[in-house]
Amino acid sequence: MVMKRKRIVKCLSGCLALLGLTVSCNDELYMGGVGVVPATKAYYLYTNMLGFNLPDTVVNPSTFNVECQNVPWRLDVADEWLKVTPAEGNGEEDTTLVTVGADINPSTYYRMSVFSLEAAMDTSVYKYSQQIWAAQQGNTGTLLTVSCEVPLRLRASASSETFTVDTNAPKFGLRTDADWLQATASGNEIMVTASENKTEDVRVGYIYFDTYGQEWQNSSETIFTYYLEVRQESPEYSLSESSLAFRNTAGTKTVTLYCDLGWTASTTDSWIQVSPSSGSAGTVELSVSVTENGGVEERSGAVNLHVDGDFLIEIPVKQSGLYMDMTESRFDFESGAASRTVSMSTNLSFWNVLEKPSWVSVSPESGEAGEHTLTINVEDNPNTTKREGRVVVGNHGLSLADTLWVTQEGKWFGSLETVLQFENVASSNTLDISTDGDWTVTTSDSWIAVNPSSGHGKAQVTVSVQANEGDNDRTGLLAVAVGGTVQYVNVVQKGRYFTIDRGSSASLPSKGGTIELGIATNQTWTAVVKNQSSWLALSATQGQGDAKLVISAQDNPSLESRTDTIVFTPANKQGVKLAVTQAGRYLKTDAQTVSFFYKGGTSAPVTVSTDGTFRVEKSSGADWLVVATNNNLLMFTAEPYSGNDKRTATVSVYLTGLSGEASEAKMVDIVVTQYSKNTQFVRDDYGEDVRLDVAYKDGAVIVRSDYGEDKDLSPAPGTSGEIGREDYGADQNLEQ
Known about the structure:
Immunoglobulin-like, 66 strands, mainly beta
């Protein structure tokens, strides 16, 4: 083996190695930390520093950052040799640079200090603490290295290792801290001897090298002490089997054991034997035997391996008792007859079927120990309900059995139509039956027939009805049964009927036109105009079943409305009457008076409403008034007036194009009034006598009388000669 010379790390470095940390004199270790941020206020305290590794003489201090927000903080440094500044902050700075230094280490041993960065505030508001370590190397006035690996590793068995030491010290001494570990020196060659490790754990000891500055015999003071860690492994062992399981019969199994120490094997269970019972380090085959288990219950024991008497290796041993085991615990069948098989294993000398439902058979029903295949047969389930039972196989005398649960679905019976509809005539319809079982269809109504009335599985049944000669609907019932489950279907047949969708009356305008009428019936029918009026016509006068008719009326050129009746008569039913009314001509205007002020002008239009034609005629002597027609609008224009009294004219509106001798008729008279310059107007349609008199620049006076409140007269009169509030005398504004 190639021996490498390595300098022995002092105590601090060794401990750090155990922690899994690699450091150097000037290295800085960092670790991030995040504080908790409450919802009420933003608090933050953080440092990325985990620790420092300092040399024995600090020339250049190390630094780290403290980041904070709204958090006063402190550093709790306990050791005086460690110099940390500043040691606290008020929390107002975002970042603070902290310097870390140390006094000279007068010792050859490392030293360590741990301090914390903490939030210096009420901990119920914010908590934060981050530990930071600082390790300082011992004084390195002398050097000492070894050629072996560090730490030195030894086997669990008694063993020795040899290595060399290289040092600049004139002399060194040896000592150990464990009674199982010895070290001797021959010059610079060191022999390390360890006794057997009979514990279950790795054990650690240390060899210390005390260096001296003078000759060995004259030395009185140790200059530096170095150490070498020695790790002795725990005993190693392996088993080919971690546990053993036996059937109820006597038997033997082999376990391969490896152990690097001596061992003994034993058991406290009388039904277990193990051979050999002891051995030295190495590999050996252990033979474990069990006697027959004649009971039903499983039994458990163990083989105990004692390694040099200090620790125990246990091999659990289980042995089954008498057993009955089926590979399945449940069978689910459809409704039809079927078979399935199940494997069964048992060590019973005799077994039989102890329990089964009447609709289940088992083959075979008995047997001896061994492997068997049982056939489970189920009969057809004629019902729609699910059924369940169990098959129990075992030995009654030994109270040993295994159970197979058996379920079988009932017949499937799909939902049927709830109603079959028929017209009043003899006819047929179909009913779909969905099932996987036997079915029957029955009825107690003589006017209903079904074919076929029984069957199996899905089918289509023809349902026939006789003609319904009555005026009322009738209802019958079909009973469809599958395995004791019955569904009912209503059979509804209409009686004879006749209806129209217009009610008892209809109307048409004077100009004539058409209307549609719908007939709903299962009868033949006729239709006639009762008085045979020539102005009223039908698109059809007879038919079979439902129909759409068009009723048409000619123009009515008279002022009078006219009416006739259409009579619908279905076969074997009372007739239905429809009164049809046609309106006469009409004419009206939206005003019967028009007023002008003395200045004259043009009035607001008067609208004529009519379904005919009209003409306008002005009374004689009304040359001062012009009447213009624009479609259905009448426009009145008055000349200026200088008289002292008001003047009037009548405009008559005649409805024209009428039939008979009266080819036209006067319908409306419109009175047009023009007032003189000094006319006074009085409004007296309110309940209180309150006057509001307004004088106008032209000399006219408008008096508003009997108002309950002092209201404005709006709009104020201008230069127009029109008085445009047509319904004067009613409760309307007076507008010039």
